[in-house]
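Format notes (please read before filing issues)

Several people have asked whether sequences and C-alpha cells are stored in separate files. They are not. Every record keeps both together, in the order shown below: the sequence lines, then the C-alpha cell lines. Line labels are part of the format and must not be stripped during preprocessing.
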Amino acid sequence: MKQNIIVLISGILFGFGLGLSQMIDRDRVLGFLDAAGTWDPTLLFVLGGAVGVTAITFRFVLNRPHPLFGDRFYLPTVQSIDPILVGGAAIFGIGWGVSGYCPGPGITALILGIWNPVLFLIAMVLGSLAYKWFSTASQPRREVQQ
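Then the structure lines:
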C-alpha cells in the first residue's frame, strides 16, 4: 500500500511537471520536432534540465544498495543494440512526430478535454496489443516436459 501511494504521488508530480513544461501541448512538441520548418527550441530547456538532473543524481542514486522505497533497482541487463530495439525506437519516433504525444504526455493531456490524446492512447493500446500478438505468434511453441 505504501509503495502504491508513492507511485501515485510520483505520477501526479510527473504529470504536473509535464503540464508546467508544456509537454502536453502537441503543437509546441511538434514545433520542437520540426527542425526544418518553424523550429520552437523552448522544449530544449526541458530536455536539458531532465538530462542534467539525471546525469548528476544517478551517480548518487545508483551507489545506494537499494532505492529508498524498494528492495532493489530494476536496471536493464541487455547492453546490445539489435534490430528490435532500433525498430521500436523508429516506431516510437514516428508516432511522436505524427501525433505530438508520447505515453506520459498523452495520458496527462487527457485533462485538456480534447480528442487528440484520446485517439493517441487508443492507437498506442492497439499498437501494444498488435506487438504482443505478433511477438507471441512468431515464437516457436515449446512442449511442456513432465
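For reference, the curators noted about this record: The two ends are 39 Å apart (CA to CA). The CA atoms of residues 64 and 92 lie 32 Å apart.
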